[in-house]
Write a structure and sequence with these properties.
This protein is an alpha/beta fold and 333 residues long. The protein has helices at residues 87-97, 125-143, 155-163, 183-193, 201-212, 224-229, 232-242, 246-251, 270-278, 303-308, 319-332, and strands spanning 2-5, 22-31, 35-43, 48-56, 62-67, 100-105, 148-153, 170-176, 257-262, 283-288. Helices cover 34% and strands 21% of the residues.
C-alpha cells in the first residue's frame, strides 16, 4: 500500500442522507480548444443508457468511465437537491487537457437514460454495476483502448468496486470520496454530527436499524424531513446498499486502485479513505487537504463556505486532483 499526501495550493447531501454501442450520428455537443463532446448510448434493460464521450484533440492515452454518486445526480455531477457544481464535467475537461478521454453517464431511469427502466428507484447496486459493464463495451469499442479505467465518486465508488469483481477489460479503479464503512454507519454518523437533527434522531436511528435488517419502515408519523429521507420508494435501494461492506469489497479487487480523499469533505471523513486503503494491498491513497466532497478547493473550515461550492458551477475542481489521477494512471500502465 502507498500513502501520498498532496499539500498544494443545514445541507449534507440528502442523497446520502437524503456489446453493442450507438454513436448518435457524429454529433458534437460542445467543445473547447482541448477537447470535444459526443453523445453516446449503451444498451439498458428496457431502453438506451446515455452518456457523453469527452475526447482530447490529440490521440487519447487512456479512457476513463466516470460513475456518478448517489441520488438524482446527472452526467455532469449536478442534481435537483441543490448541487450545481458540474464536478464531473470539470473532471472530464481536466482529464482531456491531460490527453485522457472520458465517458460520463446518466444513471438508469434518469435524464438521458430515463427510458432504460420504468422506475429509477427500483434498482440495486448490482444493477448499476451491470450498466458499468455495458458502458465498458461502449467505451472500449469507441476508443480502441485495450482496457477502460473506472472512476467512481461517492456511491459511484461502491459501484466501481462491485463492477471490478467481474471479469472485464478494466485497467484499474479511481475511487473518490468513497465511503469506507457500511452505508448504515455513514448515515447514522451524518445524522448525529448535525446538532439540528437531535429531535429527529430516535426515529431516524430506528428507521436505519429496520432497513439494515431488510425490513420496510412506516414513515407516516415521522417528521417531514425523515419522510423524504426514508421515502417508501427508496427503501429497497437503501436496504440493498446497507448490505455492502466497502472494505470487504476493495479486498476482492486485484487491480491497481487509487483512493482520493479531500480533507474538507463534510460527508465522507478521511478515516473512511484510510480504512479502504488498509483493506487493499493494491491501493495508493492520496489526501488533498483543501478539497471537499464536490472536489472543489475550500480555504476555510467554515461549513457555510464549504456548502457554497456545491452550487457554484464556475469553480473548477482542484487541479491537484487531476494531477494525481493522471500520475497514477501513467504509473500503472
Amino acid at each position: 500500500m502507498t500513502l501520498l499526501r498532496l499539500t498544494g495550493c443545514g445541507r449534507v447531501l440528502l442523497t446520502l442522507l437524503m456489446a453493442a454501442f450507438t454513436l448518435i450520428g457524429d454529433h458534437v455537443v460542445s467543445g473547447n480548444a482541448q477537447s470535444s463532446e459526443t453523445v453516446l448510448q449503451a444498451p439498458g434493460p428496457l431502453g438506451s443508457l446515455e452518456g457523453v464521450l469527452q475526447t482530447p484533440d490529440a490521440t487519447a492515452s487512456a479512457t476513463i468511465l466516470i460513475i456518478p454518486g448517489s441520488g438524482p445526480t446527472d452526467r455532469d455531477g449536478n442534481n435537483s437537491l441543490g448541487v450545481s457544481a458540474a464536478t464531473y464535467r470539470y473532471l472530464a475537461q481536466g482529464l482531456a487537457k491531460a490527453g485522457i478521454s472520458s465517458v460520463r453517464i446518466d444513471k438508469r431511469g434518469m435524464f438521458g437514460s430515463r427510458n432504460a427502466v420504468e422506475d429509477a428507484n427500483n434498482v440495486t447496486l448490482a444493477d448499476y454495476a451491470d450498466d458499468v459493464h455495458a458502458w465498458i463495451k461502449v467505451a472500449q469499442a469507441q476508443s480502441g483502448q485495450p482496457c477502460i479505467w473506472l472512476l467512481g465518486h461517492s456511491e459511484g465508488a461502491l459501484v466501481a468496486m462491485l463492477a471490478a469483481q467481474r471479469n472485464a477489460p478494466i485497467c484499474g479503479l479511481v475511487l473518490i470520496a468513497s465511503p469506507g464503512r457500511k452505508f448504515a454507519d455513514v448515515l447514522r454518523q451524518q445524522l448525529r454530527d448535525n446538532p439540528a437533527n437531535k429531535p429527529l434522531l430516535d426515529d431516524a436511528i430506528a428507521a436505519i436499524n429496520e432497513l439494515e435488517a431488510g425490513r420496510k419502515v412506516d414513515v407516516g408519523k415521522f417528521h417531514p424531513a425523515l419522510q423524504g429521507l426514508f421515502a417508501p420508494q427508496v427503501q429497497g435501494f437503501m436496504s440493498d446498499l446497507m448490505a455492502y461492506d466497502p472494505v470487504k469489497m476493495i479486498s476482492k479487487v486485484s487491480l491497481p486502485v487509487l483512493i482520493l480523499q479531500g480533507g474538507r469533505d463534510i460527508q465522507v471523513p478521511v478515516s473512511d479513505a484510510e480504512q479502504l486503503h488498509a483493506g487493499s494491498s493494491n491501493s495508493t491513497l492520496v489526501l488533498l487537504p483543501d478539497v471537499n466532497h464536490v472536489l472543489k478547493e475550500v480555504g476555510t473550515d467554515s461549513r457555510e463556505d464549504n456548502l457554497a461550492t456545491y452550487a457554484n458551477p464556475s469553480l473548477p475542481v482542484k487541479p491537484d486532483l487531476i494531477d494525481a489521477i493522471v500520475e497514477f494512471m501513467a504509473g500503472a500502465r
